[in-house]
C-alpha cells in the first residue's frame, strides 16, 4: 500500500482541478481513473476521419472559472457559426424561418413566453444556486413538477412547451413532469438567469480549438509522471477519522483525504467500510442522470449556409428538439460541414428501441424537416454513446426527483470524515457544466489546504 496526502477518484475536470491545486501547494496527490483516458464527460475523438466533440463542448460568457482556466492553459477559442436564419417548427407542424431571438409564433404565444421568462428570471434572481433550498418559495416549488408549474402559469400550450423545452429536454434531459419547479429555477440561477438559457447565442457561444477535452488533457500533463493512473476502477474505501484506504483491482492507496470527483450516481457503486451515513446513502437514491443522444452528422459541405440558414433549428415537437452548425474551426483543405443535434428523455427512449438503421433514418427525416432534402444524405453519422457508457450511463448531468432538492440538497457537498465529494452535478454557478466542475474542484482543494 502506498501513502499519499490526497487520493482523488476520477480524472475528469473536477478531479484534475483538485489534483493540480493540491500539487501546486506541495501535496502528494494520486488520481485514480476507471476509464482508459482522462476527461470524464469531455471527449474529443477522430471518428472515421471526422473530429467530433463526443461530450461537452460549448463555452458561454458567464462561465468565468472555465474562461480563466482556458486562458491559464493558453488555449484558443472560436465562435459558433450563426450567420443566417434559424428554423422553428411549431405546434401546427409548419416550418418557419426567423432572425434574432423572437421565434415565429403568434403574438399571444410570444407574449406568454416573454411573461414566463420574466417570472423565471425573477425567481432565479432570488436564489443562491449554492443553496437553492433557502429560496423563499423553495418548499412550494420543490413539491410541484415543472410541467405542473407551467400549467398553472399559462393556458397557452405552445408557450408551455417551448419554455419547458429549455430546461427539460435541452438541459436536464428529462421530461418536465419528472423534476421540480425548484430544479428548473436552479438551472436558471446557475446560468445567471433564465434569459441566458433561452438565448442560444449566449449559452452556446464558443468552442476550444481542437476540442474541449484539451482542458483536462492539459491539466493532467501538469501533474508528475505516475500521478494519474488509468484503468483503475475503485471498488472499496475503508475510512476512519484520520484517513482512508482506496482499493482497486490493481492495488490499495492510503490518503489523509480522499476526494470522490465523480457524479453522485457513481458514489454508491463503491463499497464503504464503515458505510456512509444514512442520509448520504438515501440522498443518492433520489438523484439520477437524464438521457440524451447527441448526434453528429457530417455532410460534404455545410449546405445550409448556402440556403441562408445559420444551422440553428429547434422545436418541442420534433424528434430532434434542437440542432446547430457544429463545423470545426477553419482548417486548410477541410470543406465538410457538421450538424449537431439532440434527442432526449422519452423521445430518446423510443429511438433507442429501434435498430441503428431505423434510428438513423428517423433522425435524418427530422433534420430534413428543418434543412431540406439535402439533410438525408450525410457522409458520416455518429451517436455519442453516453447512455451506454459504464462510468456515466446518461447525460448531461444528474438532478433530484421531485421534493428531494429541499430534503437532501444541503448534504450534497458535506464531507464524511476524510471523504469529500465534488463534481459539476453538485455545483451552484455552472451547474452541470465544466465551469461548475472547476468551481467544485477549487472549493474542495481550498478546504483541504486549510
Rg of Cα set? 22 Å
Shape summary:
globular
The biggest sheet amounts to: 8 strands, mixed
What is the structural class?
A: alpha/beta
Q: What's the rounded overall pLDDT mean?
A: 96
Number of helices: 17
Which parts are unreliable, with pLDDT below 50 for 5 consecutive residues or more? none
Percentage of residues in strands: 15-25%
Helix percent band: 25-40%
Topology, number of strands: 22
Q: State the separation between the terminal residues, measured CA to CA.
A: 26 Å
Brief digest:
This protein is α/β, with parallel strands linked by helices and 450 residues long.
Element layout with pairings:
Elements: E1 2-9, H1 13-24, E2 29-32, E3 44-47, E4 50-53, E5 58-59, H2 64-72, E6 77-79, E7 85-89, E8 95-98, H3 107-125, H4 138-142, H5 146-153, H6 157-172, H7 181-190, H8 194-197, H9 200-203, E9 206-208, H10 214-221, E10 228-229, E11 234-240, E12 243-248, E13 252-260, H11 264-267, E14 271-273, H12 278-283, E15 287-289, E16 292-299, H13 303-306, E17 309-314, E18 322-325, E19 337-344, H14 345-352, H15 356-371, E20 380-383, E21 398-400, H16 404-408, E22 419-421, H17 434-449
Parallel strand pairs: 1-2, 1-13, 2-10, 7-17, 11-14, 13-22
Antiparallel strand pairs: 3-4, 5-9, 6-9, 7-8, 11-12, 12-13, 15-21, 16-19, 16-20, 17-18, 18-19
Helix pairs in contact: 1-10, 1-17, 2-17, 3-6, 3-7, 5-6, 5-7
Task: Describe the fold and architecture.
The protein is of the alpha/beta class. Helix content is 34%, strand content 23%. The protein contains 17 helices and 22 strands. It has helices spanning 13-24, 64-72, 107-125, 138-142, 146-153, 157-172, 181-190, 194-197, 200-203, 214-221, 264-267, 278-283, 303-306, 345-352, 356-371, 404-408, 434-449; strands spanning 2-9, 29-32, 44-47, 50-53, 58-59, 77-79, 85-89, 95-98, 206-208, 228-229, 234-240, 243-248, 252-260, 271-273, 287-289, 292-299, 309-314, 322-325, 337-344, 380-383, 398-400, 419-421. The strands form five sheets. Strands 1, 2, 10, 11, 12, 13, 14 and 22 form an eight-stranded mixed beta sheet that branches. Strands 8-7-17-18-19-16-20 form a seven-stranded mixed beta sheet. A three-stranded antiparallel beta sheet has the order 5-9-6, with helices on one face. Strand 17 and strand 18 (322-325) form a beta hairpin. The chain is globular, with a radius of gyration of 22 Å. 51% of the residues are buried.
Amino acid at each position: 500500500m502506498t501513502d499519499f496526502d490526497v487520493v482523488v477518484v476520477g480524472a475528469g475536470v473536477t478531479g484534475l482541478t483538485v489534483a493540480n491545486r493540491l500539487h501546486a501547494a506541495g501535496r502528494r496527490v494520486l488520481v485514480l481513473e476507471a476509464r482508459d483516458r482522462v476527461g470524464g464527460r469531455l471527449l474529443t475523438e477522430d471518428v472515421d476521419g471526422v473530429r467530433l466533440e463526443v461530450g461537452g463542448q460549448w463555452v458561454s460568457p458567464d462561465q468565468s472559472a472555465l474562461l480563466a482556466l482556458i486562458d491559464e492553459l493558453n488555449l484558443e477559442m472560436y465562435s459558433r457559426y450563426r450567420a443566417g436564419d434559424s428554423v422553428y417548427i411549431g405546434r401546427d407542424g409548419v416550418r418557419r424561418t426567423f432572425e434574432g431571438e423572437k421565434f415565429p409564433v403568434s403574438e399571444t404565444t410570444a407574449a406568454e413566453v416573454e411573461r414566463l421568462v420574466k417570472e423565471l428570471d425573477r425567481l432565479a434572481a432570488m436564489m443562491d444556486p449554492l443553496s437553492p433550498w433557502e429560496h423563499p418559495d423553495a418548499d412550494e416549488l420543490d413539491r410541484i413538477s415543472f410541467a405542473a408549474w407551467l400549467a398553472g402559469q399559462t393556458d397557452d400550450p405552445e408557450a408551455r412547451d417551448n419554455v419547458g423545452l429549455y430546461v427539460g429536454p435541452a438541459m436536464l434531459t428529462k421530461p418536465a413532469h419528472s423534476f421540480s419547479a425548484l430544479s428548473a429555477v436552479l438551472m436558471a440561477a446557475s446560468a445567471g438567469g433564465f434569459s441566458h438559457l433561452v438565448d442560444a447565442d449566449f449559452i452556446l457561444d464558443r468552442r476550444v480549438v481542437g476540442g474541449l477535452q484539451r482542458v483536462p488533457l492539459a491539466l493532467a500533463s501538469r501533474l508528475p509522471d505516475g500521478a494519474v493512473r488509468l484503468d483503475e476502477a475503485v471498488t472499496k474505501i475503508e475510512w476512519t477519522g484520520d484517513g482512508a484506504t482506496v482499493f482497486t483491482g490493481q492495488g490499495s492507496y492510503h490518503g489523509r483525504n480522499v476526494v470522490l470527483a465523480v457524479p453522485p450516481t457513481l458514489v454508491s457503486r463503491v463499497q464503504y467500510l464503515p458505510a456512509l451515513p444514512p442520509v448520504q446513502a438515501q440522498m443518492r437514491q433520489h438523484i439520477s442522470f437524464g438521457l440524451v443522444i447527441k448526434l453528429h452528422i457530417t455532410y460534404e459541405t455545410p449546405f445550409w449556409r448556402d440556403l441562408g440558414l445559420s444551422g440553428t433549428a429547434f422545436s418541442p415537437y420534433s424528434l430532434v428538439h434542437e440542432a446547430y452548425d457544429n463545423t470545426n474551426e477553419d482548417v486548410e483543405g477541410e470543406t465538410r460541414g457538421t450538424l449537431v443535434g439532440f434527442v432526449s428523455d422519452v423521445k430518446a427512449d423510443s429511438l433507442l428501441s429501434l435498430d441503428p438503421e431505423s434510428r438513423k433514418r428517423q433522425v435524418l427525416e427530422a433534420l430534413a424537416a428543418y434543412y431540406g432534402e439535402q439533410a438525408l444524405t450525410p457522409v458520416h453519422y455518429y451517436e455519442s454513446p453516453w447512455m451506454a457508457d459504464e462510468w456515466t450511463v446518461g447525460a448531461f448531468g444528474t438532478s433530484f426527483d421531485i421534493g428531494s432538492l429541499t430534503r437532501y440538497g444541503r448534504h450534497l457537498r458535506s464531507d464524511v470524515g476524510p471523504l469529500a465529494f465534488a463534481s459539476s452535478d453538485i455545483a451552484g454557478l455552472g451547474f452541470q457544466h465544466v465551469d461548475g466542475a472547476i468551481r467544485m474542484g477549487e472549493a474542495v482543494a481550498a478546504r483541504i489546504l486549510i
